[in-house]
Amino acid sequence: MRIAVLDDDPIFLRLVEATIHQMGHATILFETGEDLLRAMRRESFDLLIVDWLLPGLSGIEVVRALREAGGCKQPILFASQRHEEQDIVAAFHAGADDFMVKPLRVQELMARITALMRRAYPDATTMRLEFEPYRLDPVARTVYLHKQPIELKHREYELAEFLFQNCGRLLSRNHLTEAVWGNITPTPSRTLDTHASRLRTKLQLNQFHGAGQIYQLSAIYGLGYRMEILPAPEHAAASGRQLQTS
Q: Where, per the database record, does this protein carry 4-aspartylphosphate (predicted)?
């Protein structure tokens, strides 16, 4: 998972970063709300941890701006020294999903992150393997289409698994490369495009396979990729006819 942390206290940022890395997740750190808002236009994150008192825009203003823009569906955890009931209520009204009072307790922070992730991304956290007509086998690192195995290279399987587990989400290029290739060495942008193209061909994506739906992998220019489920043409047409006659 990829978590953005917004706070102007470097000590707090290091603490949260170490905690998140201990959980096996990646962090991207921000010290101003303006920096986070700019990043959100081109990047994708699985969770946001936001402080209240910041230079420039406050945490409340940042969260409100993200929610009002309509594109931010990620869970948001507020972490603040403010602890009055009206402060906590204001944070939830602005769009927060959870609230913690500083100083944070490490084990509680881990538990809250895990709970938010489990609610927001059940497929990714429970390792769903069935995506009719596809089935993923993480041991054999193979994807089956109608019970027929499809030979994939190591990184191709990693990318396929990550896309299926996050179906419906727009994932930035950096998010995908970090999840599949890691942060050890920079990954050329063309590498991701090549692997995505191979997956479309090998998995026969964007085609109807008789399950009433189509898994479509789309490139979003300047941002990244999204795997989404679309109704098969005949099902969509049938739904349209039902709406017209109702």
A: 51
d(CA 91, CA 227): 32
Nearest to 157 by CA among 202, 93, 95: 202
Alpha carbons within 13 A on the beta-carbon side of 118: 7
| Tokens standing for residue 193 | 């495009």
Distance CA 91, CA 113 (A): 17
175, 2 Cβ separation under 8 angstroms = yes
To the question of pTM greater than 0.85 for the whole model, the response is no
Looking at the DSSP assignment, which residues form a beta bridge with residue 27? Answer: 3
Q: Indicate the residue type of 125.
A: T
The 10s digit of each residue's pLDDT in 129-138 is 888 889 999 8
In this structure, what DSSP letter does residue 46 have? S
The distance of Cα 10 from the centroid of its chain, to the nearest Å, equals 25
Q: How far apart are CA 173 and CA 101, in angstroms?
A: 34
The pLDDT of residue 201 is 95
Residue with tokens 């995506």: 131
Total Cβ atoms within 10 A of residue 81 = 11
Question: In this structure, how many other beta carbons lie within 10 angstroms of the beta carbon of residue 122?
Answer: 11
pLDDT digits (tens, 9 = 90+) for 178-231: 999 986 556 677 899 999 999 999 999 988 876 668 899 999 988 899 999 888
Cβ 72 vs Cβ 40: under 8 Å: yes
The residue type of 178 is E
